[in-house]
Amino acid sequence: MTKSKDKKREKVSVASEIDLVEERRLRCQDNIEKAEFRRRRDELSDHERQSLEDEITLMNERVQNYDKELENDHCEEVMSPFCHQNSPDQSRHGLH
């Protein structure tokens, strides 16, 4: 297979991966909104409220992880050397 076909397939693969992560992120964001609505609407016991707060916190962490993954995937797709220049993970590891 030629290099141009390999490159095209690689870009399609990265684009598909980005689409999947974006879809997961949107579903998670939707679940957060539903949980926050329920928290405002329903009369919850202290235990139920805390449980719902914990669930919202976990979903927010997932959204942040999806955002990071999307940023990484986008950088790979465009192969920009500047994408991760100020990334906290790289500063921590001396990679910037």
From TrEMBL:
InterPro entries: CC167 (IPR028194)
Subcellular location: Membrane
Cellular component terms per the entry's GO annotation: membrane
Any one Pfam family match given in the protein's UniProt record, by short name: CCDC-167
The entry's keywords: Coiled coil, Membrane, Transmembrane, Transmembrane helix
Major localisation: membrane
Topology of the protein relative to the lipid bilayer: Single-pass membrane protein
Protein name, entry field: Coiled-coil domain-containing protein 167
Organism, scientific name: Umbra pygmaea (Eastern mudminnow)
